[in-house]
Amino acid sequence: MILKPSSDAPTIAAKFVEVLEEAGMPDGVVNFCPGSGATFGNAIVEDHGRGYCIHGLEGGGVGDPRAAAKARPGQIWIKRTILEMGGKDSILVCADADLDAAVEGVTASAFGFSGQKCSACSRAIVEAPVYDVFVERCGSGSQS
Q1: Cβ atoms of 62 and 45 closer than 8 Å
Q2: Global pTM?
Q3: Which of 27, 26, 39, 37 has the alpha carbon at shortest distance from 4?
Q4: Active-site positions?
Q5: Cβ atoms of 14 and 32 closer than 8 Å
C-alpha cells in the first residue's frame, strides 16, 4: 500500500506509519510517500496497481478520475477506485421514508467519527410533508 498524504499536512500520516512499524507491520506493506499530488497522485492513477482510494479535492492530484477506467497494456483486471472528493454529502429524506431510520442514519453519518470523514452527511434534504417531524426528532434525540 502506498500512503500519500496531503502535501499540506504529512506529519500525522508519518506518525501513523511509525505506530504501524512499532506494532510490527512488516516492511513494504505500507509505504509512506509524501509529495505533490499533482505529479505523484496522477502517477498512482496511471500505474498498473489494482486500485486506489483518494480522499480530498480533485485538484489534489487525481487529474481525470476516468483515467482509472482505462485499461493499460498488460492490465488484466478492472482497477478498483474509491473517490471521496469532498462533495458536501447530502442525504435525501423522502415523505414515505421510515423517519426513525432516517433520523438515526443522518445522525450517525453526520456525527460518527466526530464528523471527521469525507463522506459525513453535511446536509439533509427533507421533503416538505415530513420536514417538521424530521427536524423535531433530530433536535430532541427522540425517535418515536
Answers
A1: yes
A2: 0.51
A3: 37
A4: 84, 118
A5: yes
